[in-house]
Amino acid sequence: VITINGQEAVIKQGTEIPFQTTVVAGGAAAANIQFKEAVLELKVLPIISPDGRVMLDISLKQDTPGVQTPQGPAINTKQVTTKVIVNDGDTLVIGGIIDSLKNRTTEGVAGLVRVPILKWLFGQERIQDQDVELLIFITPTIIMD
User: Fold this and answer.
1) Distances 82 to 20, 51, 116 between C-alpha atoms, Å
2) Which residues pair with 82 in a beta bridge?
3) Nearest Cα to 131, choosing from 94, 105, 93, 103?
4) What whole-number distance in Å separates Cα of residue 139 and Cα of residue 137?
């Protein structure tokens, strides 16, 4: 992402989740489709100091779809906001957004894996726990005209 001194740069990737609402007007109900964003968004505001260092005002936000509610989908949000000063060309690493993924699968002979004692003889259960951390690397580089 390229920006100018004192101008915020924004990059985001994600999806818009459609959900239906009902609007009552004049005694008649009408369906209305609305959208909620679930995105990974990075905002960076650079300010170059007279000594050539760069102050960065950084905001990192990760939204993921949550449970469905009568009002629409819930959005789970994780956010990191920080201000740092780095030298021109130095690399900054931002972390702290961690997802814990848990997956449980059962395989085996159909029908028998549902019987409490037989599932251990005729089936296999796998439990997978995984932690995933999002790391963002930022290297400010001053470009002179």
Assistant:
1) 36, 21, 52
2) 58
3) 103
4) 7
**pLDDT tens, residue order, the chain (145 aa):** 889 999 999 999 999 888 888 788 788 888 888 888 889 999 999 999 999 999 999 999 999 888 888 777 888 888 989 999 999 999 999 887 777 778 787 787 777 777 777 777 777 778 888 888 888 899 999 998 7
Radius of gyration of the chain (CA): 24
Beta strands in the chain (DSSP E): 9-25, 28-48, 53-69, 72-87, 92-108, 123-138
Among 138, 93, 145, 144, which Cα is nearest to 1's? 138
Please state, in angstroms and rounded to a whole number, the distance separating the CA atoms of residues 61 and 145. Answer: 32
If you search the block for the tokens 């690397």, which residue do you land on?
Answer: 137
CB hemisphere CA count around 69 (13 angstroms): 9
Question: In terms of DSSP bridges, do strands 53-69 and 28-48 run parallel, antiparallel, or are they unpaired?
Answer: antiparallel
